TrEMBL record, chain A:
Keywords of the record: ATP-binding, Cell inner membrane, Cell membrane, Membrane, Nucleotide-binding, Translocase, Transport
Pfam families: ABC_tran, TOBE_2
A single Gene Ontology CC term: ATP-binding cassette (ABC) transporter complex
Name of this chain's protein: Putative 2-aminoethylphosphonate ABC transporter ATP-binding protein
Highest classification ranks of the organism: Bacteria, Pseudomonadati, Pseudomonadota, Alphaproteobacteria, Rhodobacterales
Residues that span the membrane, as ranges: none
PROSITE patterns the UniProt entry points to: ABC_TRANSPORTER_1, ABC_TRANSPORTER_2
Domain of life: Bacteria
GO biological process: quaternary ammonium group transport
TrEMBL record, chain B:
Lineage: Bacteria, Pseudomonadati, Pseudomonadota, Alphaproteobacteria, Rhodobacterales
Subcellular localization(s) per the UniProt record: Cell membrane
Pfam families assigned to the protein according to its UniProt record, in alphabetical order: BPD_transp_1 (PF00528)
Keywords carried by this UniProt record: Membrane, Transmembrane, Transmembrane helix, Transport
Classification via PANTHER family: POLYGALACTURONAN_RHAMNOGALACTURONAN TRANSPORT SYSTEM PERMEASE PROTEIN YTEP, PROTEIN LPLB
Keyword Manganese included in the entry's annotation: no
Bilayer disposition of the protein: Multi-pass membrane protein
Organism: Rhabdonatronobacter sediminivivens
Alphabetical list of InterPro entries matching this protein: AminoethylPonate_ABC_perm-1 (IPR017664), MetI-like (IPR000515), MetI-like_sf (IPR035906)
Annotated family: Belongs to the binding-protein-dependent transport system permease family.
Chief location: membrane
Transmembrane segments: 26-51, 81-104, 116-139, 159-181, 202-227, 261-281, 308-331, 365-384, 396-419, 431-457, 490-513, 533-557
GO CC term, one of those recorded: plasma membrane
Protein name: Putative 2-aminoethylphosphonate ABC transporter permease subunit
Length: 376, 571
């Protein structure tokens, strides 16, 4: 289900993955994955645990060789090469710093082996530590640094040999929320500056949305969607992507006519029906922030009366549970603190809302299949 | 920024790398093969030789269960079987409550001087098992000063064997039970107390269930140690026959290898059973304690604590006496008539044709087993745990490495006799050499060391090898620069464990020594046989002194020298 429109012409790809399959016993971790990654691109593999994103990263690194399929880097077939014959640097969630070596010795670990002169190594280490914002810390031991600092040392170590590819395996997951935010920006900034092709694995959609040039959403060993963060968020290719990236409420519905939906006895217009045959059962998705309450024209499409069933206070905004007057469908809506104040929204109040046709996402999967997929 | 342009000319390097790559896999593979080959020769084939021998007659023809039938048709031999079971059951029944109370005092009270009491309980680990038997001869033997306490019974027989076995196995039980009682969730006690549970009920419903796996494991270990121990019944068994002395007599005395093989197979049964139970219990024990458990912190309670001090004083005194009397007696001119101090008993040439040589041979053998064994075992564990070459062979090597713990020394020694002494075996040139003693000792104590190494290696980030690979650093560089320095404490533990066991072991090597490779522990058996009990005690004293000396050196090294190289652990 790769979105071909975002895949560039093949001759530009720095990293090319073709029909990659990996099984662990009966379990298929990767199922015929194909993907091209461009020079200098920052790509995130996003998905829930067990979706195969880490397996894919480790296959790219050569740490766990795939059962079938090919990988080429910079035009060179490395499908069955051991890690040392590939050209990459890697950063792990656990930092994996050598605890008995100083920060400087950690960073220069790969340089020593390449027979650099001592002076060159010293200069390079200083340069890298400067780059990750840890100058003058070279003589310390990893245990003396904070988690965020350790991860930056790991980053410097991975970049030391100027690899063509940087692999990041959940690099921020072990860190505190605040440190995570800061390091997120630093990594992104560093990547832009060096222009190194980067693949990051994460299960955190926010991380993927803020950092990536392109996101690869994975589930059950297949790619669900490839696209820019805005694309993935605004035009989720599947119900899974819609649910995993951001929040969405789902309804059971039917495509009555082209561009015409029926759900809970209400007729609604939608902008994109994905060319499905009229009469098919569909799942309709709606993001909470798309529910319009203010400045509604009387002739606005898809307007309806709803009752405020529940309000969940979340600080900057409120998540409201709205129940339609007809049909009793449940809609989630995010109301800003502003709107709550201006409209004096309260429990059991009746509101008029509009669901813009372009914000109604139609998916071919029937809703009960969606639920079972989540349970699995 | 210069970074983007400072890429090295990679062509030459990657060509060199390309040459390096197969060799990295090749080295790992070769190490796996070497380790498997070593374990195959040192444990699997000797065991197979023993097994097959028990089904062959003297002419080497297959006779099915005939040897077993002959064994069970002989009432004297069957008596030994029952004697062995009786002694093992009795010793276990005595040791477990003793050790449990002792371990409870060490873990669940605020008794003072816990480290000292712990150390005293572990003393017998530094001596050959038969040393306590020698002490008993001095205390309760025909010339013993407390002979009256036996009311006319003789110490040479079940009474002596049982007391000596209790002393010998006590530290093993304490070690297991301290671990089991130490793994407790303090929250359970807080909950029980909050619910107003009486102390006895807490003990019954929280403490005992928590330690039950430790109790089971300790019982099996003690039972196996007793039933397979050779030194104690040899010294103090008198006319009371047990399986271990039967094997010795059959093989060394009567050259009846078939019967020896049958008894060896019988001895294997409790050991294998104990091994299986231990594996099972271990798995459950881990599941018992979640990662969120908070260790139990005992609160001071003067009456209880003092009670346990009194108990531990008595037990520790008895344990120390069981070794100390032999040490004392080794410096006495003529027990019990002339108690003046002498070093004459250390003039070994008077008592033993090999003189002092057995002692030096022992030290040399222990040093070699310790050094070679540590290198083989730690490197082996590393290859099994951290490399990816030959998954099947690595699994097989791990299986073989876990095997020796289920094989009693006497059985292993027998297997070596049958395998390495066979005329068809080109390896028989090693028979009775120092080499075979070293290999046998490393193998005998392989499993515990292997587990120590694996545990240490598992604590290391499993991505170190991945990181090195990404940095094009071959695994042996990371092994040398990172893995070994991090694991140095565990490596030292293994080396000391091997050394001490090599010094004290009797059972396996009794079949394997030669004229020039007699060990100190074997010399003790011989001098005791010849009636030179004081000299035997002197040799035992030397072994204990050497073992404790090495252990003390280990503690000093660990605390003062190693600590200086481990500054990277400190914040």
């Amino acid at each position: 289900m790769t979105a071909d429109k975002t895949t560039p012409p093949s001759d530009q790809a720095y990293l090319r993955i073709e029909d990659l399959t990996k099984r662990f016993g009966q379990f298929t971790a990767l199922d015929r994955i194909s993907l091209d990654i461009n020079q200098g691109e920052f790509v995130c593999f996003l998905g829930p645990s067990g979706c195969g994103k880490t397996t894919l990263l480790r296959a790219i690194a050569g740490l766990d060789i795939q059962d079938e399929g090919r990988i080429s880097m910079d035009g060179r077939d490395v499908s069955f090469s051991p890690p040392a014959a590939r050209d990459f640097g890697i950063v792990f969630q656990s930092y994996a710093l050598f605890p008995n070596l100083t920060v400087a010795d950690n960073v220069s670990y790969g340089l020593v082996n390449q027979r650099w002169s001592r002076q060159n190594i010293r200069d390079r280490v200083a340069e890298l530590l400067e780059l990750v914002g840890l100058p003058e810390q070279g003589d310390k031991y990893p245990v003396q640094l904070s988690g965020g600092q350790q991860q930056r040392v790991a980053l410097a170590r991975a970049l030391a040999t100027s690899p063509g590819l940087l692999l990041l395996d959940e690099p921020l997951s072990a860190l505190d929320a605040r440190v995570r935010l800061r390091l997120r920006e630093q990594i992104r900034e560093l990547q832009r500056r060096l222009g190194v092709t980067t693949v990051m694995v994460t299960h955190d959609q926010e991380e993927a949305l803020t950092m990536a040039d392109r996101i690869v959403v994975m589930n059950h060993g297949v790619i669900e969607q490839v696209g820019t963060p805005a694309d993935v968020y605004a035009n989720p290719a599947t119900a899974f992507v819609a649910d995993f990236v951001g929040t969405m409420s789902f309804f059971e519905g039917k495509l009555a006519a082209p561009g015409q939906l029926t759900l809970a006895g209400i007729n609604l217009a939608c902008a994109d029906d994905r060319g499905l045959t009229p009469g098919s059962r569909v799942t309709v998705g709606l993001r909470p922030e798309e529910v319009r309450v203010r400045n509604l024209d009387p002739d606005q499409p898809n307007t309806m009366q709803v009752r405020v069933d529940d309000l969940e206070y979340l600080g900057a905004f409120c998540r409201a549970r709205l129940v339609t007057e007809t049909g009793g469908a449940v809609i989630l809506a995010d109301f800003s603190a502003n709107l709550m104040r201006d409209m004096a929204v309260s429990l059991n109040q009746t509101l008029t809302v509009s669901l813009p046709p372009e914000s109604l996402h139609v998916f071919a999967t029937p809703i009960e299949d969606l639920a079972s997929e989540e349970a699995a | 920024m210069s970074l983007t342009v400072s890429r090295q000319p990679t062509g030459a390097i990657s060509r060199r790398r390309a040459l390096l790559i197969p060799s990295e896999n090749f080295v790992a593979g070769a190490l796996v093969v070497l380790l498997s080959a070593f374990l195959l020769i040192s444990i699997a084939l000797p065991l197979y030789a023993l097994l097959s021998k028990s089904f062959l007659n003297r002419q080497g023809e297959f006779v099915g269960l005939e040897n077993y039938a002959a064994y069970f048709a002989n009432p004297i031999l069957v008596d030994s079987l029952f004697n062995s079971l009786f002694i093992a059951a009795l010793s276990t029944a005595i040791v477990i409550p003793l050790a449990f109370t002792y371990a409870y005092a060490l873990t669940r009270t605020c008794m003072p001087a816990k480290p000292l009491f712990y150390a005293l309980a572990l003393l017998p680990l530094f001596a050959p098992s038969l040393m306590s038997a020698l002490s008993l001869v001095y205390i309760f033997g025909n010339q013993g000063f407390l002979r009256g306490l036996l009311f006319g019974n003789t110490i040479y027989g079940p009474i002596g064997i049982t007391i000596a076995q209790v002393t010998y196995t006590f530290p093993h039980a304490v070690l297991i039970l301290v671990t089991a009682l130490g793994l407790s969730d303090g929250r359970l006690y807080e909950v029980a107390n909050a619910l107003g549970t009486p102390k006895t009920r807490i003990f019954r419903t929280v403490t005992l269930p928590g330690a039950q796996y430790g109790l089971i494991s300790a019982s099996f270990v003690v039972f196996t140690l007793v039933i397979t121990d050779f030194g104690i019944p040899k010294v103090i068994g008198g006319q009371y026959n047990v399986l271990a002395t039967d094997v010795y007599r059959a093989v060394v005395g009567q050259q009846n290898f078939e019967r020896g093989a049958v008894v060896g197979m019988i001895l294997l049964v409790p050991a294998v059973l104990a091994f299986a139970v231990d594996r099972l219990v271990n798995r459950r024990q881990v599941a018992l304690l979640s990662a969120r458990a908070v260790p139990y912190q005992p609160a001071p309670n003067t009456a209880r604590d003092m009670g346990f001090v009194a108990y531990c004083l008595v037990v520790a005194f008895l344990v120390a006496a069981a070794l100390g009397v032999a040490v004392w007696a080794s410096f006495i001119t003529y027990w019990p008539w002339n108690l003046s101090f002498t070093t004459a008993n250390y003039n070994f040439p008077r008592f033993e044709p090999a003189g002092w040589n057995p002692y030096f041979t022992s030290v040399k053998m222990a040093a070699l087993a310790s050094i070679i064994g540590t290198v083989v075992i730690f490197t082996g564990a590393y290859v099994i745990e951290k490399t990816k070459a030959f998954p099947m062979a690595r699994g097989f090597a791990h299986f073989l490495a876990m095997l020796p713990v289920a094989v009693p020394g006497l059985v292993l020694g027998l297997g070596y006799v049958f395998f390495f002494n066979a005329p068809w075996n080109p390896l028989n040139i090693f028979y009775a050499t120092l080499t075979i003693l070293v290999v046998n000792t490393i193998t005998h104590f392989f499993t515990v060391s292997h587990i120590t190494a694996l545990t240490a290696l598992k604590q290391i980030d499993r991505e170190f090898e991945s990181v090195s690979a990404s940095l094009k650093v071959p695994f042996w560089n990371t092994f040398r620069r990172v893995t070994v320095p991090i694991c140095l404490p565990a490596i030292l533990d293994i080396a000391v464990y091997l050394f001490i066991n090599a010094m004290t072991t009797v059972s396996a090597v009794i079949f394997l020594y030669g004229a020039h490779t007699k060990l100190a522990s074997i010399s003790i058996v011989h001098m005791d046989e010849a009636g030179f009990i004081a000299a035997a005690a002197a040799m035992a004293t030397l072994i204990v002194a050497t073992s404790i000396g090495v252990k003390a050196l280990h503690i000093v090294l660990d605390r003062y020298v190693l600590a200086r190289f481990q500054f990277w652990r400190r914040k």
